[in-house]
Amino acid sequence: LSNQREMTSLQNKKPVVETEVQQVAMGTANLESFRFTHGMGNKNAEVQMFMAEEVFATTNLTDKQKMAAVIAKSDQRLQTCYYERGSQQSLPCEWSQFKELFLQQAADSGLDKVEKYRDETWANYLKRLKMEAQRRKLDDNEVLKMLKGRDAPSKYQVLFLAGKLNLDELISTIETFEFMQKLKPRSNNKKKEQVKPKRRQITQENVTCYKCQGKGHFARNCLKKTKKSCLLVKSSNEDELKLSGKVHRAILDTGSDVNILTYKVASKLGAYEVITNESKEITLLNGNKMKALSKVKIWVEKDRFSDFVEFYVVDRAICDVILGKDLVNKVRGKSYCFPLVCTIPTPPGKIVSWGRPYNSEKDKEDFKKLLSEFERKGIVEESSSLWLNPVTLARKKDGSLRFCLDLRRLNSLVELDEFVIPNIQDMVRSLSDHEYFSVLDLKDGYFQVDLAVKDRQKTAFIDPDGRLMHFTKMPQGFKNSPAIFQRGMQMALKNLLNRKCMSYLDDILVFGKSESEHDENLRIVLERIGQFGLVVNDEKSKIKLREVDFLGYRITKNKVSPTEKRSQGIIDYEVPKSKKDLRGFLGTINYDRILIKNLADKAKILYEAINEEDRRLNWNPERQRVFEGLKANWEKS
After folding, report:
1. I need a surface site. Which of 40, 138, 188, 483 has the fewest CB within 10 A?
2. Residue 474 and residue 493: Cα distance in Å, rounded?
Protein backbone atom coordinates (compact mmCIF):
# COMPACT_ATOMS: atom_id res chain seq x y z
CA LEU A 1 0.00 0.00 0.00
CA SER A 2 2.84 2.36 0.86
CA ASN A 3 4.47 1.75 -2.53
CA GLN A 4 1.16 2.23 -4.33
CA ARG A 5 0.57 5.56 -2.58
CA GLU A 6 4.10 6.66 -3.45
CA MET A 7 3.68 5.79 -7.14
CA THR A 8 0.24 7.47 -7.24
CA SER A 9 1.75 10.60 -5.74
CA LEU A 10 4.52 10.61 -8.33
CA GLN A 11 2.10 9.96 -11.19
CA ASN A 12 -0.07 12.91 -10.12
CA LYS A 13 2.91 15.17 -10.77
CA LYS A 14 2.78 14.06 -14.46
CA PRO A 15 6.44 14.65 -15.34
CA VAL A 16 7.45 14.97 -18.98
CA VAL A 17 9.23 11.62 -18.95
CA GLU A 18 6.00 9.73 -18.06
CA THR A 19 4.31 10.94 -21.26
CA GLU A 20 7.28 9.72 -23.26
CA VAL A 21 7.13 6.33 -21.52
CA GLN A 22 3.48 5.87 -22.50
CA GLN A 23 4.14 6.87 -26.09
CA VAL A 24 7.09 4.53 -26.53
CA ALA A 25 5.41 1.64 -24.70
CA MET A 26 2.44 1.85 -27.06
CA GLY A 27 4.47 2.26 -30.23
CA THR A 28 7.41 -0.12 -29.78
CA ALA A 29 6.78 -3.87 -29.74
CA ASN A 30 10.39 -4.93 -29.17
CA LEU A 31 10.68 -3.57 -25.61
CA GLU A 32 10.17 -7.07 -24.16
CA SER A 33 13.71 -8.06 -25.17
CA PHE A 34 15.42 -6.22 -22.27
CA ARG A 35 14.81 -5.52 -18.57
CA PHE A 36 16.65 -3.50 -15.86
CA THR A 37 16.61 -4.07 -12.09
CA HIS A 38 18.42 -2.17 -9.34
CA GLY A 39 21.55 -3.96 -8.13
CA MET A 40 21.84 -6.25 -11.16
CA GLY A 41 25.61 -5.75 -11.40
CA ASN A 42 27.85 -4.21 -14.08
CA LYS A 43 27.96 -7.15 -16.44
CA ASN A 44 24.21 -7.77 -16.49
CA ALA A 45 23.44 -4.06 -16.81
CA GLU A 46 25.79 -3.67 -19.80
CA VAL A 47 24.30 -6.74 -21.53
CA GLN A 48 20.76 -5.41 -21.10
CA MET A 49 21.80 -1.95 -22.36
CA PHE A 50 23.41 -3.55 -25.42
CA MET A 51 20.13 -5.35 -26.18
CA ALA A 52 18.21 -2.09 -25.71
CA GLU A 53 20.45 -0.24 -28.16
CA GLU A 54 20.04 -3.06 -30.67
CA VAL A 55 16.27 -2.44 -30.50
CA PHE A 56 16.73 1.34 -30.76
CA ALA A 57 18.89 0.89 -33.89
CA THR A 58 15.84 -0.41 -35.78
CA THR A 59 13.65 2.53 -34.73
CA ASN A 60 13.75 6.26 -35.22
CA LEU A 61 13.55 7.32 -31.54
CA THR A 62 14.77 10.59 -30.08
CA ASP A 63 17.16 10.61 -27.09
CA LYS A 64 14.28 11.44 -24.77
CA GLN A 65 12.20 8.54 -26.13
CA LYS A 66 15.13 6.15 -25.65
CA MET A 67 15.42 7.28 -22.02
CA ALA A 68 11.69 6.78 -21.54
CA ALA A 69 11.85 3.29 -23.05
CA VAL A 70 14.65 2.22 -20.69
CA ILE A 71 12.79 3.58 -17.66
CA ALA A 72 9.61 1.81 -18.78
CA LYS A 73 11.50 -1.51 -18.68
CA SER A 74 13.02 -0.89 -15.22
CA ASP A 75 11.90 -2.09 -11.80
CA GLN A 76 9.97 0.14 -9.40
CA ARG A 77 13.05 1.34 -7.51
CA LEU A 78 14.72 2.68 -10.67
CA GLN A 79 11.45 4.11 -12.00
CA THR A 80 10.80 5.99 -8.76
CA CYS A 81 14.25 7.54 -8.92
CA TYR A 82 13.83 8.75 -12.50
CA TYR A 83 10.21 9.88 -12.07
CA GLU A 84 11.50 12.16 -9.31
CA ARG A 85 14.32 13.41 -11.56
CA GLY A 86 11.82 14.05 -14.35
CA SER A 87 9.46 15.98 -12.08
CA GLN A 88 12.38 18.17 -11.04
CA GLN A 89 13.52 18.65 -14.68
CA SER A 90 16.92 17.17 -13.73
CA LEU A 91 17.20 14.35 -16.29
CA PRO A 92 20.23 14.41 -18.62
CA CYS A 93 19.41 15.82 -22.05
CA GLU A 94 21.68 13.57 -24.09
CA TRP A 95 21.45 9.78 -24.41
CA SER A 96 25.17 9.22 -23.70
CA GLN A 97 24.96 11.10 -20.38
CA PHE A 98 21.78 9.27 -19.41
CA LYS A 99 23.28 5.89 -20.34
CA GLU A 100 26.37 6.40 -18.13
CA LEU A 101 24.30 7.58 -15.15
CA PHE A 102 21.68 4.86 -15.56
CA LEU A 103 24.22 2.02 -15.81
CA GLN A 104 25.80 3.15 -12.53
CA GLN A 105 22.46 3.09 -10.72
CA ALA A 106 21.25 -0.18 -12.24
CA ALA A 107 24.56 -1.91 -11.53
CA ASP A 108 24.69 -0.72 -7.90
CA SER A 109 25.26 -3.93 -5.93
CA GLY A 110 24.29 -2.48 -2.58
CA LEU A 111 27.35 -4.16 -1.06
CA ASP A 112 28.49 -0.81 0.31
CA LYS A 113 25.59 -1.11 2.79
CA VAL A 114 27.20 -4.24 4.30
CA GLU A 115 29.08 -2.67 7.20
CA LYS A 116 32.11 -4.11 8.97
CA TYR A 117 31.50 -4.93 12.64
CA ARG A 118 33.71 -3.14 15.15
CA ASP A 119 35.46 -6.29 16.45
CA GLU A 120 35.39 -8.18 13.13
CA THR A 121 38.64 -8.99 11.35
CA TRP A 122 39.05 -7.74 7.79
CA ALA A 123 39.42 -11.32 6.51
CA ASN A 124 36.08 -12.29 8.05
CA TYR A 125 34.48 -9.12 6.67
CA LEU A 126 35.61 -9.99 3.13
CA LYS A 127 34.28 -13.52 3.53
CA ARG A 128 30.92 -12.13 4.61
CA LEU A 129 30.91 -9.78 1.59
CA LYS A 130 31.63 -12.73 -0.71
CA MET A 131 28.73 -14.72 0.74
CA GLU A 132 26.42 -11.70 0.44
CA ALA A 133 27.46 -11.26 -3.20
CA GLN A 134 26.69 -14.93 -3.88
CA ARG A 135 23.28 -14.50 -2.28
CA ARG A 136 22.58 -11.53 -4.58
CA LYS A 137 23.90 -13.50 -7.59
CA LEU A 138 26.80 -11.05 -8.07
CA ASP A 139 30.32 -12.07 -9.07
CA ASP A 140 33.49 -11.42 -7.07
CA ASN A 141 34.39 -8.41 -9.22
CA GLU A 142 31.48 -6.47 -7.70
CA VAL A 143 33.05 -6.95 -4.26
CA LEU A 144 36.48 -5.88 -5.52
CA LYS A 145 34.98 -2.79 -7.16
CA MET A 146 33.19 -1.79 -3.94
CA LEU A 147 36.37 -2.25 -1.87
CA LYS A 148 38.27 0.32 -3.96
CA GLY A 149 36.16 3.08 -2.46
CA ARG A 150 36.03 1.59 1.03
CA ASP A 151 37.70 3.20 4.06
CA ALA A 152 40.32 0.75 5.31
CA PRO A 153 43.79 0.67 6.88
CA SER A 154 46.38 1.93 4.39
CA LYS A 155 48.05 -1.50 4.14
CA TYR A 156 44.76 -2.96 2.87
CA GLN A 157 43.80 0.01 0.67
CA VAL A 158 46.98 -0.61 -1.34
CA LEU A 159 45.80 -4.17 -2.04
CA PHE A 160 42.26 -3.03 -2.88
CA LEU A 161 43.43 -0.34 -5.34
CA ALA A 162 46.18 -2.42 -6.98
CA GLY A 163 43.60 -4.86 -8.33
CA LYS A 164 46.19 -7.60 -8.92
CA LEU A 165 44.54 -10.22 -6.66
CA ASN A 166 41.22 -11.96 -7.09
CA LEU A 167 38.87 -12.02 -4.09
CA ASP A 168 39.97 -15.43 -2.77
CA GLU A 169 43.66 -14.44 -3.01
CA LEU A 170 42.88 -11.15 -1.29
CA ILE A 171 41.11 -12.94 1.59
CA SER A 172 43.99 -15.41 1.97
CA THR A 173 46.62 -12.62 1.98
CA ILE A 174 44.81 -10.53 4.60
CA GLU A 175 44.05 -13.62 6.72
CA THR A 176 47.75 -14.54 6.76
CA PHE A 177 48.75 -10.98 7.64
CA GLU A 178 46.25 -10.80 10.53
CA PHE A 179 47.44 -14.16 11.83
CA MET A 180 51.06 -12.96 11.83
CA GLN A 181 50.03 -9.79 13.65
CA LYS A 182 48.66 -11.92 16.51
CA LEU A 183 52.03 -13.64 16.90
CA LYS A 184 53.88 -10.37 17.45
CA PRO A 185 54.81 -9.81 21.12
CA ARG A 186 52.96 -6.93 22.72
CA SER A 187 54.86 -4.09 24.34
CA ASN A 188 55.10 -4.55 28.08
CA ASN A 189 54.66 -1.16 29.71
CA LYS A 190 56.18 -0.92 33.16
CA LYS A 191 53.66 -0.25 35.87
CA LYS A 192 54.29 1.78 38.96
CA GLU A 193 55.50 -0.27 41.86
CA GLN A 194 52.84 -0.94 44.46
CA VAL A 195 53.34 -1.91 48.07
CA LYS A 196 52.03 -5.44 48.52
CA PRO A 197 51.83 -7.72 51.57
CA LYS A 198 54.97 -9.71 52.18
CA ARG A 199 54.86 -13.02 50.33
CA ARG A 200 57.09 -16.03 50.22
CA GLN A 201 60.04 -15.47 47.94
CA ILE A 202 60.01 -17.84 44.96
CA THR A 203 63.17 -17.83 42.83
CA GLN A 204 63.13 -18.53 39.10
CA GLU A 205 65.37 -21.56 39.56
CA ASN A 206 63.13 -23.59 41.86
CA VAL A 207 59.77 -23.22 40.08
CA THR A 208 58.09 -25.91 37.96
CA CYS A 209 56.06 -25.11 34.84
CA TYR A 210 52.55 -26.61 35.04
CA LYS A 211 52.36 -26.82 31.24
CA CYS A 212 55.54 -28.72 30.26
CA GLN A 213 56.75 -29.79 33.75
CA GLY A 214 60.12 -28.14 33.02
CA LYS A 215 62.17 -26.22 35.58
CA GLY A 216 63.18 -22.56 35.71
CA HIS A 217 60.11 -20.82 34.28
CA PHE A 218 56.42 -20.24 34.95
CA ALA A 219 53.57 -21.63 32.82
CA ARG A 220 52.68 -18.14 31.57
CA ASN A 221 56.19 -17.87 30.03
CA CYS A 222 56.27 -21.40 28.62
CA LEU A 223 57.35 -21.55 24.97
CA LYS A 224 55.91 -24.99 24.36
CA LYS A 225 52.60 -25.29 22.56
CA THR A 226 49.54 -25.32 24.80
CA LYS A 227 48.20 -28.78 25.43
CA LYS A 228 45.27 -29.81 23.30
CA SER A 229 41.77 -29.34 24.56
CA CYS A 230 40.22 -32.27 26.36
CA LEU A 231 37.39 -32.25 23.86
CA LEU A 232 39.83 -33.05 21.07
CA VAL A 233 40.23 -36.61 22.38
CA LYS A 234 39.02 -38.89 19.60
CA SER A 235 36.00 -40.94 20.51
CA SER A 236 32.84 -42.33 18.96
CA ASN A 237 31.44 -38.79 18.80
CA GLU A 238 32.36 -38.52 15.11
CA ASP A 239 30.26 -39.56 12.14
CA GLU A 240 29.63 -38.98 8.44
CA LEU A 241 26.59 -37.31 6.89
CA LYS A 242 25.56 -35.59 3.66
CA LEU A 243 25.30 -31.81 3.30
CA SER A 244 23.61 -30.74 0.05
CA GLY A 245 24.34 -34.23 -1.28
CA LYS A 246 28.07 -34.20 -0.42
CA VAL A 247 29.59 -36.45 2.27
CA HIS A 248 31.31 -34.68 5.18
CA ARG A 249 32.77 -35.86 8.48
CA ALA A 250 31.24 -34.20 11.55
CA ILE A 251 31.78 -34.03 15.30
CA LEU A 252 28.66 -34.74 17.33
CA ASP A 253 28.80 -32.23 20.19
CA THR A 254 25.98 -32.89 22.65
CA GLY A 255 27.07 -29.87 24.67
CA SER A 256 26.44 -27.35 21.90
CA ASP A 257 23.16 -25.52 21.35
CA VAL A 258 23.94 -24.71 17.71
CA ASN A 259 25.24 -26.39 14.55
CA ILE A 260 28.51 -25.01 13.16
CA LEU A 261 29.97 -25.02 9.65
CA THR A 262 33.29 -23.55 8.49
CA TYR A 263 33.39 -20.98 5.72
CA LYS A 264 35.59 -23.34 3.66
CA VAL A 265 32.81 -25.94 3.45
CA ALA A 266 29.94 -23.45 3.14
CA SER A 267 31.55 -21.73 0.14
CA LYS A 268 31.84 -25.07 -1.69
CA LEU A 269 28.32 -26.36 -1.02
CA GLY A 270 26.60 -23.77 -3.20
CA ALA A 271 23.06 -25.08 -2.69
CA TYR A 272 22.08 -23.37 0.53
CA GLU A 273 19.90 -20.51 1.71
CA VAL A 274 21.36 -17.58 3.66
CA ILE A 275 18.97 -16.78 6.53
CA THR A 276 20.82 -13.82 8.01
CA ASN A 277 24.20 -12.09 7.93
CA GLU A 278 23.80 -10.88 11.51
CA SER A 279 26.90 -11.54 13.60
CA LYS A 280 26.65 -13.95 16.54
CA GLU A 281 29.32 -15.02 19.05
CA ILE A 282 29.93 -18.78 18.94
CA THR A 283 31.88 -20.83 21.51
CA LEU A 284 33.86 -23.56 19.76
CA LEU A 285 34.80 -26.99 21.09
CA ASN A 286 38.23 -25.78 22.21
CA GLY A 287 36.66 -22.98 24.26
CA ASN A 288 37.65 -20.21 21.85
CA LYS A 289 35.01 -17.65 20.93
CA MET A 290 34.50 -16.15 17.49
CA LYS A 291 31.91 -14.27 15.53
CA ALA A 292 29.74 -16.28 13.14
CA LEU A 293 29.91 -14.90 9.61
CA SER A 294 26.29 -15.77 8.81
CA LYS A 295 23.46 -18.23 9.39
CA VAL A 296 22.50 -20.63 6.58
CA LYS A 297 19.98 -23.41 5.96
CA ILE A 298 21.32 -26.63 4.39
CA TRP A 299 19.76 -29.95 3.36
CA VAL A 300 21.14 -32.67 5.67
CA GLU A 301 20.89 -36.45 5.15
CA LYS A 302 21.93 -39.11 7.66
CA ASP A 303 20.51 -42.65 7.69
CA ARG A 304 16.72 -42.17 7.91
CA PHE A 305 16.94 -38.49 8.78
CA SER A 306 16.66 -35.82 6.05
CA ASP A 307 15.63 -32.20 6.49
CA PHE A 308 16.73 -28.57 6.14
CA VAL A 309 18.93 -27.62 9.12
CA GLU A 310 20.25 -24.24 10.28
CA PHE A 311 24.05 -23.82 10.63
CA TYR A 312 26.19 -20.91 11.81
CA VAL A 313 29.13 -20.26 9.47
CA VAL A 314 32.46 -19.52 11.22
CA ASP A 315 35.92 -18.72 9.94
CA ARG A 316 37.59 -21.87 11.26
CA ALA A 317 37.03 -24.63 13.84
CA ILE A 318 38.70 -27.88 14.90
CA CYS A 319 36.31 -29.68 12.54
CA ASP A 320 34.55 -28.37 9.43
CA VAL A 321 31.14 -29.61 10.59
CA ILE A 322 29.93 -29.68 14.21
CA LEU A 323 26.43 -30.90 15.05
CA GLY A 324 24.67 -29.52 18.15
CA LYS A 325 22.64 -31.43 20.71
CA ASP A 326 19.24 -31.10 19.02
CA LEU A 327 20.47 -32.35 15.65
CA VAL A 328 22.49 -35.15 17.28
CA ASN A 329 19.34 -36.35 19.03
CA LYS A 330 17.42 -36.34 15.74
CA VAL A 331 20.19 -38.09 13.83
CA ARG A 332 20.84 -40.76 16.46
CA GLY A 333 17.28 -40.99 17.68
CA LYS A 334 18.43 -40.69 21.29
CA SER A 335 18.01 -38.15 24.07
CA TYR A 336 21.16 -37.16 25.97
CA CYS A 337 20.36 -35.79 29.40
CA PHE A 338 21.37 -35.78 33.07
CA PRO A 339 20.33 -38.98 34.94
CA LEU A 340 18.01 -37.06 37.32
CA VAL A 341 15.39 -34.33 37.17
CA CYS A 342 15.32 -31.73 39.96
CA THR A 343 12.08 -31.61 41.95
CA ILE A 344 11.01 -29.10 44.60
CA PRO A 345 8.37 -30.83 46.77
CA THR A 346 6.42 -28.37 48.94
CA PRO A 347 3.36 -28.79 51.20
CA PRO A 348 0.02 -28.21 49.42
CA GLY A 349 -1.50 -24.75 49.84
CA LYS A 350 1.83 -23.09 50.69
CA ILE A 351 3.03 -20.29 48.39
CA VAL A 352 6.09 -18.04 48.73
CA SER A 353 5.75 -14.52 47.33
CA TRP A 354 8.23 -11.79 48.24
CA GLY A 355 10.58 -9.50 46.34
CA ARG A 356 13.33 -6.91 46.51
CA PRO A 357 13.92 -3.83 44.28
CA TYR A 358 16.91 -3.42 41.97
CA ASN A 359 19.10 -0.57 43.23
CA SER A 360 22.06 -0.27 40.84
CA GLU A 361 21.36 0.89 37.27
CA LYS A 362 24.55 -0.79 36.03
CA ASP A 363 23.52 -4.08 37.67
CA LYS A 364 20.10 -3.78 36.01
CA GLU A 365 21.61 -3.32 32.55
CA ASP A 366 24.11 -6.18 33.01
CA PHE A 367 21.34 -8.36 34.43
CA LYS A 368 19.21 -7.75 31.33
CA LYS A 369 22.07 -8.94 29.12
CA LEU A 370 22.66 -12.00 31.31
CA LEU A 371 18.95 -12.86 31.30
CA SER A 372 18.82 -12.50 27.53
CA GLU A 373 21.61 -15.08 27.27
CA PHE A 374 19.86 -17.39 29.77
CA GLU A 375 16.63 -17.08 27.80
CA ARG A 376 18.41 -17.91 24.55
CA LYS A 377 19.94 -21.02 26.14
CA GLY A 378 16.58 -22.11 27.56
CA ILE A 379 17.63 -21.72 31.21
CA VAL A 380 14.76 -19.33 32.01
CA GLU A 381 11.43 -18.55 30.36
CA GLU A 382 8.42 -16.29 30.87
CA SER A 383 6.00 -17.35 33.60
CA SER A 384 2.47 -16.78 34.92
CA SER A 385 3.27 -18.09 38.42
CA LEU A 386 1.72 -17.00 41.73
CA TRP A 387 5.11 -17.60 43.39
CA LEU A 388 7.77 -14.89 43.64
CA ASN A 389 11.39 -14.87 44.87
CA PRO A 390 13.86 -11.97 45.19
CA VAL A 391 16.94 -11.78 42.98
CA THR A 392 20.48 -11.64 44.41
CA LEU A 393 23.16 -9.98 42.25
CA ALA A 394 26.89 -9.98 43.00
CA ARG A 395 30.11 -9.32 41.10
CA LYS A 396 32.63 -12.06 40.33
CA LYS A 397 36.39 -11.47 40.56
CA ASP A 398 36.52 -10.72 36.83
CA GLY A 399 33.82 -8.05 37.20
CA SER A 400 31.05 -10.04 35.50
CA LEU A 401 27.66 -10.40 37.16
CA ARG A 402 26.62 -13.41 39.24
CA PHE A 403 22.88 -14.03 39.52
CA CYS A 404 20.96 -16.38 41.77
CA LEU A 405 17.64 -16.42 43.57
CA ASP A 406 17.15 -15.78 47.27
CA LEU A 407 15.28 -19.03 47.99
CA ARG A 408 15.45 -18.94 51.79
CA ARG A 409 11.67 -18.96 52.25
CA LEU A 410 11.17 -21.63 49.60
CA ASN A 411 13.95 -23.73 51.18
CA SER A 412 12.17 -23.55 54.54
CA LEU A 413 9.24 -25.46 52.99
CA VAL A 414 11.40 -28.25 51.54
CA GLU A 415 12.81 -31.26 53.40
CA LEU A 416 16.59 -31.59 53.23
CA ASP A 417 18.00 -34.21 50.85
CA GLU A 418 20.64 -35.87 53.07
CA PHE A 419 22.63 -37.52 50.28
CA VAL A 420 26.25 -37.61 51.50
CA ILE A 421 28.71 -35.42 49.59
CA PRO A 422 32.18 -37.11 49.34
CA ASN A 423 34.79 -36.09 51.90
CA ILE A 424 37.49 -34.09 50.12
CA GLN A 425 40.29 -35.16 52.46
CA ASP A 426 39.46 -38.85 51.96
CA MET A 427 39.45 -38.35 48.19
CA VAL A 428 42.87 -36.72 47.87
CA ARG A 429 44.46 -39.09 50.39
CA SER A 430 43.94 -42.05 48.01
CA LEU A 431 45.80 -40.47 45.07
CA SER A 432 49.37 -40.85 46.32
CA ASP A 433 50.56 -43.47 43.80
CA HIS A 434 49.16 -41.82 40.65
CA GLU A 435 51.40 -39.74 38.36
CA TYR A 436 49.19 -38.14 35.66
CA PHE A 437 46.06 -36.07 36.29
CA SER A 438 43.33 -34.16 34.44
CA VAL A 439 40.68 -31.91 35.98
CA LEU A 440 37.41 -31.54 34.04
CA ASP A 441 35.13 -28.65 34.97
CA LEU A 442 31.47 -29.06 33.97
CA LYS A 443 30.20 -25.81 32.48
CA ASP A 444 27.31 -24.21 34.41
CA GLY A 445 26.91 -27.49 36.29
CA TYR A 446 23.47 -27.00 37.84
CA PHE A 447 22.04 -25.63 34.59
CA GLN A 448 22.69 -29.01 32.95
CA VAL A 449 19.95 -30.51 35.14
CA ASP A 450 16.32 -30.14 34.07
CA LEU A 451 13.83 -28.75 36.60
CA ALA A 452 10.54 -30.68 36.78
CA VAL A 453 7.83 -28.84 34.81
CA LYS A 454 5.40 -28.92 37.75
CA ASP A 455 7.94 -27.17 40.01
CA ARG A 456 9.21 -24.47 37.65
CA GLN A 457 6.63 -21.92 38.80
CA LYS A 458 8.14 -22.07 42.31
CA THR A 459 11.33 -20.40 41.03
CA ALA A 460 9.54 -17.32 39.64
CA PHE A 461 11.15 -13.87 39.81
CA ILE A 462 10.68 -10.45 38.21
CA ASP A 463 13.26 -9.14 35.73
CA PRO A 464 14.27 -5.43 35.49
CA ASP A 465 11.64 -4.88 32.76
CA GLY A 466 8.84 -6.18 34.98
CA ARG A 467 8.47 -9.55 33.23
CA LEU A 468 7.68 -12.59 35.39
CA MET A 469 10.22 -15.34 34.67
CA HIS A 470 11.02 -18.79 36.06
CA PHE A 471 13.80 -21.36 35.72
CA THR A 472 13.64 -24.44 33.50
CA LYS A 473 16.94 -25.76 34.92
CA MET A 474 17.98 -26.53 38.50
CA PRO A 475 18.59 -23.14 40.16
CA GLN A 476 21.52 -22.09 42.30
CA GLY A 477 20.41 -21.28 45.84
CA PHE A 478 18.08 -24.28 46.15
CA LYS A 479 19.25 -26.20 49.21
CA ASN A 480 19.00 -29.66 47.60
CA SER A 481 20.82 -28.73 44.38
CA PRO A 482 24.25 -30.05 45.58
CA ALA A 483 22.78 -33.38 46.71
CA ILE A 484 20.79 -33.85 43.47
CA PHE A 485 23.80 -33.01 41.33
CA GLN A 486 26.20 -35.26 43.26
CA ARG A 487 23.74 -38.17 43.17
CA GLY A 488 23.33 -37.72 39.41
CA MET A 489 27.09 -37.62 38.83
CA GLN A 490 27.56 -40.83 40.79
CA MET A 491 24.80 -42.47 38.73
CA ALA A 492 26.45 -41.31 35.49
CA LEU A 493 30.01 -42.33 36.41
CA LYS A 494 29.12 -45.26 38.72
CA ASN A 495 31.67 -48.04 37.91
CA LEU A 496 34.35 -45.47 36.91
CA LEU A 497 34.50 -43.73 40.30
CA ASN A 498 37.65 -44.34 42.38
CA ARG A 499 38.99 -46.54 39.54
CA LYS A 500 39.45 -44.02 36.76
CA CYS A 501 38.14 -40.77 38.20
CA MET A 502 36.67 -38.92 41.20
CA SER A 503 33.72 -36.54 41.17
CA TYR A 504 32.98 -33.68 43.54
CA LEU A 505 29.91 -31.78 42.31
CA ASP A 506 30.90 -30.23 38.95
CA ASP A 507 34.64 -31.07 39.24
CA ILE A 508 35.94 -34.39 37.91
CA LEU A 509 39.50 -35.60 38.54
CA VAL A 510 40.84 -38.23 36.10
CA PHE A 511 44.06 -40.03 37.09
CA GLY A 512 46.48 -42.72 35.97
CA LYS A 513 49.67 -44.37 37.19
CA SER A 514 51.19 -44.04 33.71
CA GLU A 515 50.62 -41.76 30.74
CA SER A 516 48.91 -44.46 28.68
CA GLU A 517 46.64 -45.45 31.58
CA HIS A 518 45.69 -41.80 32.14
CA ASP A 519 44.91 -41.24 28.44
CA GLU A 520 42.70 -44.32 28.29
CA ASN A 521 40.90 -43.32 31.49
CA LEU A 522 40.35 -39.80 30.12
CA ARG A 523 38.91 -41.16 26.87
CA ILE A 524 36.49 -43.42 28.76
CA VAL A 525 35.38 -40.65 31.16
CA LEU A 526 34.81 -38.14 28.33
CA GLU A 527 32.81 -40.68 26.39
CA ARG A 528 30.69 -41.48 29.45
CA ILE A 529 29.85 -37.87 30.30
CA GLY A 530 29.14 -37.24 26.62
CA GLN A 531 26.50 -39.98 26.73
CA PHE A 532 24.66 -37.93 29.36
CA GLY A 533 24.95 -34.64 27.46
CA LEU A 534 27.27 -33.06 30.02
CA VAL A 535 29.28 -30.08 28.75
CA VAL A 536 32.94 -29.62 29.74
CA ASN A 537 34.29 -26.10 30.26
CA ASP A 538 37.55 -26.18 28.32
CA GLU A 539 38.76 -22.84 29.69
CA LYS A 540 38.82 -24.13 33.26
CA SER A 541 39.83 -27.73 32.56
CA LYS A 542 43.45 -28.93 32.90
CA ILE A 543 44.67 -31.88 30.89
CA LYS A 544 47.42 -34.45 31.53
CA LEU A 545 49.58 -32.80 34.18
CA ARG A 546 51.92 -34.30 36.75
CA GLU A 547 51.05 -31.56 39.21
CA VAL A 548 47.47 -30.32 39.46
CA ASP A 549 45.34 -28.21 41.80
CA PHE A 550 42.08 -29.87 42.85
CA LEU A 551 39.62 -28.67 45.51
CA GLY A 552 42.22 -26.53 47.28
CA TYR A 553 45.02 -29.12 47.21
CA ARG A 554 48.09 -29.45 45.01
CA ILE A 555 48.43 -33.10 44.02
CA THR A 556 51.57 -34.79 42.69
CA LYS A 557 52.86 -38.33 42.87
CA ASN A 558 53.35 -39.31 46.52
CA LYS A 559 52.57 -35.78 47.77
CA VAL A 560 49.49 -33.73 48.64
CA SER A 561 49.86 -30.13 49.86
CA PRO A 562 47.70 -26.99 50.10
CA THR A 563 47.63 -24.80 47.00
CA GLU A 564 49.96 -21.81 47.05
CA LYS A 565 47.00 -19.41 47.08
CA ARG A 566 45.43 -21.04 50.13
CA SER A 567 48.76 -21.34 51.94
CA GLN A 568 49.46 -17.65 51.36
CA GLY A 569 46.00 -16.81 52.70
CA ILE A 570 46.84 -18.54 55.99
CA ILE A 571 50.34 -17.01 56.16
CA ASP A 572 48.89 -13.51 55.67
CA TYR A 573 46.07 -14.06 58.18
CA GLU A 574 45.93 -11.08 60.54
CA VAL A 575 46.05 -11.44 64.32
CA PRO A 576 42.47 -12.17 65.50
CA LYS A 577 40.71 -9.27 67.24
CA SER A 578 37.57 -11.16 68.22
CA LYS A 579 36.39 -14.69 68.85
CA LYS A 580 34.70 -14.61 65.45
CA ASP A 581 38.06 -13.87 63.78
CA LEU A 582 39.77 -16.67 65.71
CA ARG A 583 36.98 -19.11 64.88
CA GLY A 584 37.44 -18.28 61.19
CA PHE A 585 41.17 -18.94 61.39
CA LEU A 586 40.72 -22.30 63.11
CA GLY A 587 38.10 -23.32 60.55
CA THR A 588 40.48 -22.47 57.72
CA ILE A 589 43.44 -24.45 59.05
CA ASN A 590 41.19 -27.37 60.04
CA TYR A 591 40.61 -27.95 56.31
CA ASP A 592 44.23 -29.21 56.18
CA ARG A 593 44.13 -31.40 59.28
CA ILE A 594 45.19 -34.45 57.23
CA LEU A 595 48.44 -32.67 56.29
CA ILE A 596 49.51 -31.27 59.69
CA LYS A 597 50.30 -33.93 62.27
CA ASN A 598 48.58 -33.44 65.67
CA LEU A 599 46.93 -30.22 64.49
CA ALA A 600 44.21 -30.38 67.17
CA ASP A 601 46.79 -30.64 69.97
CA LYS A 602 48.87 -27.79 68.57
CA ALA A 603 45.82 -25.52 68.37
CA LYS A 604 44.35 -26.57 71.76
CA ILE A 605 45.22 -23.29 73.50
CA LEU A 606 43.38 -21.31 70.79
CA TYR A 607 40.24 -23.46 71.11
CA GLU A 608 40.34 -22.75 74.86
CA ALA A 609 40.37 -19.01 74.10
CA ILE A 610 37.10 -19.40 72.17
CA ASN A 611 35.44 -21.41 74.94
CA GLU A 612 36.18 -18.90 77.70
CA GLU A 613 33.10 -17.31 79.31
CA ASP A 614 34.27 -13.77 78.62
CA ARG A 615 32.61 -12.52 75.41
CA ARG A 616 35.73 -10.63 74.42
CA LEU A 617 38.82 -12.38 73.10
CA ASN A 618 41.65 -12.40 75.64
CA TRP A 619 44.82 -12.39 73.57
CA ASN A 620 48.24 -12.85 75.23
CA PRO A 621 51.86 -13.53 74.17
CA GLU A 622 51.47 -17.30 74.57
CA ARG A 623 48.47 -17.41 72.25
CA GLN A 624 50.32 -15.16 69.80
CA ARG A 625 53.24 -17.61 69.82
CA VAL A 626 50.94 -20.58 69.08
CA PHE A 627 49.18 -18.56 66.36
CA GLU A 628 52.49 -17.77 64.62
CA GLY A 629 53.71 -21.35 65.10
CA LEU A 630 50.63 -22.75 63.37
CA LYS A 631 51.05 -20.40 60.41
CA ALA A 632 54.67 -21.54 60.08
CA ASN A 633 53.44 -25.02 59.07
CA TRP A 634 52.06 -23.53 55.82
CA GLU A 635 55.27 -21.61 55.15
CA LYS A 636 57.12 -24.92 55.12
CA SER A 637 54.56 -26.52 52.80
Report:
1. 188
2. 20
